[in-house]
Amino acid sequence: MDARFTDEQDEIRRTLRDLLDKRCGPQELRAAVDTPAGHDRALWTALAGHLGLPGLALPENCGGVGGTVTELALACEETGRALAPTPLLATAVLAAPLLLALGTGAQCAGFLPRIASGDLTAALAVPGPALATALALTGHDRRGQWAGGGRAGGVQARRAEGGWQVYGQVDQVLDGHSAELLLVAAHTGGFARSRVLLFLVREDAPGLTRVRQTALDATRPQGRIQLRDTPAELLGDEAADALAALARLGDTAAACLAAEAVGAAARVLERTVEYVGQREQFGRPVGSFQAVKHRLADAYVQVQAARSAAYYAAWAAAAGAAAWAAAAPAPGAETAGPLALAQALEALRRAAAEGIQLHGGIGFTWEHEAHLYFKRAAGDELLFGPVHRLRAQAADAAHVFEEAGT
């Protein structure tokens, strides 16, 4: 494994950071999250047009850049650093890989070039508070009971004249209130022979109702969608294994989320170090006190360790299971995603908490941006954690607690 970044990867990071520094300051961030969509459409257009951000990990024949999860994770590290209000996570990290993996030729040709160009945003709708389970980050339900189990509740799909119809409700859909295309996980086949399939629902479909919800982390907008016999298009064909595709997507999502959390943690730590070097108490900078130095040093070590874990998780996700089998993968590669995400979320929570406390009185005010980083840490752990369950899933996957010979 070559841990060095290429010149192209370094250029992606540098260019993206320069653009976000100019276009995504604290005032612009607050203005964007207060809009109905919850993100800055002009910034998204710039990121797509100038940098090709939505198509970083899409192949060139689909209109993308032809990169890997590594490039996408590096981009997420920079957007996390600025808490950039964009649909990058919902569209490029969660929805686009599923379209690429399961979509028919016509579906890929119709949607992926538009996603890569930034003309189309998409969102993954998983019934119930079970996104982390569906992605096999905090458990792996091979029957898809999180989607409703074929009983009342969740989302149900049935054949209708000329296609499919879906019925049900999904809460906590990232960018679900504004996405132009929804990928909805739904049960079909009744209770006895039920299985989970993915369906495409367009924003103007009859019977679709969407509303933005109040979220703990305003920079990560969520919506509730209601489906009432809504026409839908099956993603791929009925032979497709949607549950396996969602589980494979978990590696990509975990790596990108970990990199995003690391970027946010590093930024809030930078701001805290800068502030304690300027704020004086008892005639000397607060940062000169040994106790403060120790706390910041501990947070720095934790952030750097999380960065290393996130980079390894991105490499492991990019390599893929087939490449690992052919090239003798490093031990622990199969658990890299959940472990990296757990470590990154913990580092972000630590760095944000230290930032709030060491900023003193202003750190607790609504006007200061320190609370936005803490809410990002708490919100991501609610959606994709908690940390102890991420680690438990990795331990189970690695058979850590199984007795020898069992």
End-to-end C-alpha gap:
33 Å
Can you summarize the main beta sheet?
7 strands, mixed
Oligomer: single chain
Spell the H/E element sequence.
Answer: HHHHHHEHEEEEEEHEEHHHH
Low-confidence stretches: 321-329
Mean pLDDT equals 89
Nearest-angstrom radius of gyration? 21 Å
The helix content, as a percent range, equals 40-55%
Shape assignment: globular
Task: Please state the structural category.
Answer: alpha+beta
The overall strand count is 9
Strand content: 15-25%
DSSP helix count?
Answer: 12
Produce the secondary structure layout:
Elements: H1 7-23, H2 26-33, H3 41-51, H4 69-82, H5 88-102, H6 105-117, E1 122-125, H7 131-134, E2 155-160, E3 163-174, E4 181-188, E5 195-202, E6 208-213, E7 222-234, H8 242-278, E8 280-281, E9 284-285, H9 290-327, H10 336-358, H11 370-384, H12 387-397
Parallel strand pairs: 1-4
Antiparallel strand pairs: 2-3, 3-7, 4-5, 5-7, 6-7, 8-9
Helix pairs in contact: 1-4, 4-8, 4-9, 5-6, 5-8, 8-9, 8-10, 8-11, 9-10, 10-11, 10-12
What can you tell me about this protein's structure?
- With 406 residues, the protein is an alpha+beta fold.
- It is 51% helix and 15% strand.
- It contains twelve helices and nine strands.
- The protein has helices at residues 7-23, 26-33, 41-51, 69-82, 88-102, 105-117, 131-134, 242-278, 290-327, 336-358, 370-384, 387-397, and strands at 122-125, 155-160, 163-174, 181-188, 195-202, 208-213, 222-234, 280-281, 284-285.
- Strands 1, 2, 3, 4, 5, 6 and 7 form a seven-stranded mixed beta sheet that branches. A two-stranded antiparallel sheet has the order 8-9.
- Strand 8 and strand 9 form a beta hairpin.
